[in-house]
Amino acid sequence: MDRERSIIEFDQGWADIQKGISKLKRLLEGKAETPVSIREYTMIYTTIYNMCNQKEPHDYSEQLYNKYKETLDEYITSTVLPPLREKHDEFMLRELAQRWLNHKVMVMWLTRFFQYLDRYFITRRSLPALNVVGMTCFRDLVYDEAHARAKNSVLVLCEECLKKEADRVYNYLHLTTETKLTEKVEHELLAVHVTELLEKKDSGIKALFRDEKAYSSPCCFARNAHSSGFSFLPFFFLFWQHVTVEGTTLVQQVEDAASKQDSNAPGRNEQVDCYRILIPKLIELQDKYKIYLNSCFKSHDLFQKALKEAFEVFCNKTVNGNVSAENLASFADHILRKGGIEKLGDEAIEETLEKIVELLDSIIEKDVFSEFYRKKLARRLLFDRSTNDHHERSILSKLKQRCGALFTMKMEGMVVTDVVLAKENQISFHEYLRNPDLHPGVDFIATVLTTGFWPSYKSLDIILPTEMVKCMEVFKGFYEKKTKKRKLTWIHSLGTCHINGKFEPKQIELIVSTYQAAVLLLFNESNRLSYTEMVSQLNLTHEDMARLLHSLSCAKYKILNKDPTSKSISQSDTFEFNSKFTDKLRRIKVPLPTVDDRKKVIEEVDKDRRYAIDAAVVRVMKSRKVLSYQQLISETVQQLSHSFKPDIKAIKKRIEDLIIRDYMERDPDQPNMFRYLA
C-alpha cells in the first residue's frame, strides 16, 4: 500500500479553502448559514498545511500568503465599501462601526485558517504577520477614504447632542441648569478630545484647511465651544502655524519665480512683475482666511490676533530685493495709474483699494509704504497719469481712517490742496498771457507745489536756453504780483517739453524732459558738438550729461548720431543732429533711463524716523515728567508702533541727543531716571 500523500495542485487546494471563506463571508453578512464547524475548520487548516509542506515546485506557501491579502482586498472592495459610500452622517457611522467589527472577525478566522504560515513561512521570510496584513488592508482601503467623512459625521452628531440637551432643558428642566449642563456636554464631547483630533496626521486642522474644508472639525469646535472651561489655545497655535507656513511658502514661490526671471532676462521689468504676482496672491490668501475667521471662528478676538500675527511674519519679507512696503505701494500705483490694470470697473477698483489698505495692517514699516506711495502719487498727479480723482481721494480716506490723519496729511495736501490750486493758477496765468506784450512766444504751463507736501527732488544747476529762461521770468512776474513773500524754486527734473524735430523724411513732435530739451536746443546753433562743449554750455556734471546723451543717441530713438559709435558715453565723443531720423509715428516720447531711487527713499524715511522718535520721547517725558529708562523705551515704542518698529539703539541715541539739547536730563543720583526740562 502506497503511504505517500498525493500532490495537491494550487487550484484544487484553493477551491477547497475558498468554500470555507465564502461561508464565512455569508455568515458575516447575516445570511442563513450554519456556523463553521470544527470539522470544516480542521479540513481547511490541513489543506493549507499540506500545500505548504509539499516539495518544490509544489510548495505554495508564498502563493497562499499573497492570496490571503487578495481575499481581504476583494472582500473590502466588493462588500465593505459600497454600502459605506451610499450612507451619510449617523447611518454612515453605524455602518462603519459594524464593518469594523465584521472585519476583525474576518481577520480572526482567516488568521486561524492560515495559522501555519504565521508559524513558519512568515517567520523565516520576516514578512508582516497575518493579523497586521489584515488591519493594514482596512486602513488603506477603508480608513483613508472614510476618515474625513466619519469625523464630519461625528461633529454633526456632537452638534445634535448639544441641541438635544438644550431642548431637553427647555422642555423638562429649569432654565438655570442649561449653562452648566451645556458646559458639561461640551467638555465630554469636545474638550476631552480636542488636542488629539487637532494634531492627528492628515485629519487635523492643517489637513482640513489645506483641503479647504472650512466647516470641518476644528472649525466646528470653535463654533460650538462656549463654555468657560474650553481652551482656544490649541486652535490659536495651529491656526497661526498653518497660515504662517502657507503664506511663507507662497512668498518663497514668488521669490523663486522672480529670481528665475532675473537670471534669464535681467532688468527692471521682472521686479515690476514681482509685485503684480505677489500682492494679488496675498490679497487672495487674506480673503480666504477672513471667510474662515468670520464663518468658522465667529471673528473671535484670539483668532483675529492669530491671523494678523501670521500675516506679519511673511508679509514683511523682502522679495527680489524689494521691501514689502514698496511692493504694496507699487501695486496700489498699478491700480490707480492710467493703463496700469486691465479693464477694472469703478466698483472693482474700490474693492481692491480696500483690500490693499487692509493688507497694510500686516506691514510693520508703514512709514516706508507712505514714502513710496507719496512718490508714486506725485508722478501720477504731475504727469496726469491718475485714472480718477475720486479713487485717489478714496484710498486716502481709507488710509486716514485706518492709520490716522498724520499718516495722510502730506498726501491730502497734494491731492486736495495743491492740485486744485495749481489748476486755478494755470487758468489765471493763461488769462495773464492774453496781453501780447507779456507772452513769451512759447506755450508754457507751470505747476506750483507746496514744498512740505511733496517729495524732495534733485535739482540741477543747469544753464537753460533763453526761450525757457524767458518763460520762467514771465511766470515769476505773474506769481509775484499774485502772492507776497513766497519764493519760487524751479524743479526742472519734473518738467516736460514738446519740441518739433525737423527731420528730412518728415517733421516729428518729440516729447522730452526739460534737460533733454536743453541738450537738443543746442543743435539749433550748431549741427555738431563735442561732449565737453555741451557740458560747458549747460553746466552739467559728467554723470548727468552722460545719462542725457545716452537717451538721445544710444537708446531706441537715435535723435543724435554719436562718433565713435558705441553703447557708452565718453568725454571724447562728438555728437551730430541725425537729420535722417524717422519713425512711423508723428509724435514720440523719448524716455530717460530710470533711476533707482529706493536708496534715497529709505534714507528719507530714516531721517523722518529720527524726528518721529524725538517727538515721541518729548511727548512721553512732557506728560510723565520723571521716568525710568525702561519705561521711557517701552512707552516710546508703543507710541511709534502704529507707524514703524523703532530700533532700541536708535531710541537710545535720540535720548542722548535730546539730553545734549536740554530737553531732558539724567537724575544725578539715579542714572537710569530721566527728568523733563520745561
TrEMBL record:
GO annotation (BP), single: ubiquitin-dependent protein catabolic process
Domain Cullin family profile: start-end pairs: 323-553
GO molecular function, one term: ubiquitin protein ligase binding
SUPFAM superfamilies membership: Cullin homology domain (SSF75632), Cullin repeat-like (SSF74788), Winged helix' DNA-binding domain (SSF46785)
Top-level division of the source organism's lineage: Eukaryota
Membrane-spanning ranges: none
Family: Belongs to the cullin family.
Protein name as it appears in the record: Cullin-2
Species this protein is from: Hibiscus syriacus
